[in-house]
Amino acid sequence: MIKTIKRFFRKGELDCQDVADLSSAYIENDLKDSKRSAIQNHLSKCGPCQAFVDTLSSTIGLLSRLPGINPPSALKQSLRDRMRRGN
Ligand SMILES: [Zn+2]
C-alpha cells in the first residue's frame, strides 16, 4: 500500500527495483510504450541499471542465438541478485 502511494507521488518514475523487475520484459520488447520510456528515462540517469540491462541483454542475446536454448530464469535471477548487492 505504501509502495503504491509512493509510486503515485513519483508520477510514474521508476526506481532501480522496478527496473530490475521489468528488465527482462524491457529487453524482450514486451512492454507498453509508457513503461518502456519510463525505463529509458531511468537508464539515462542511472549507471548501475544501464550496466545491468546491458549485461542482461547481451547474455540473453548470446543465449538466444544458440538454437533451442532459452535463458534460464535462474540466470536472470542471479544477475538481479548481483545488482542488488551492488547497491
Ligand atoms: Zn537505477
User: What class, by secondary structure content?
Assistant: mainly alpha
Small molecules bound in the structure, each named once: zinc ion
Describe the biggest sheet?
none
Which residues sit in consecutive blocks of at least 5 with pLDDT less than 50?
none
Q: Can you tell me the number of structural domains?
A: 1
Alpha plus pi helix count: 5
Strand content: under 5%
User: Into which percent range does the helicity of residues fall?
Assistant: over 70%
- Termini separation comes to 24 Å
The Cα radius of gyration reads 14 Å
What is the string of SSEs from the N terminus onward?
Answer: HHHHH
Description:
The structure is a single chain. It is built from 5 helices and no strands. With 87 residues, the protein is mainly α. Helix 3 (33-45) packs across helix 4 (47-64). The protein has helices spanning 2-9, 16-27, 33-45, 47-64, 73-86. It binds zinc ion (ZN). Residues 16, 19, 42, 46, 48-49 line the site of zinc ion.
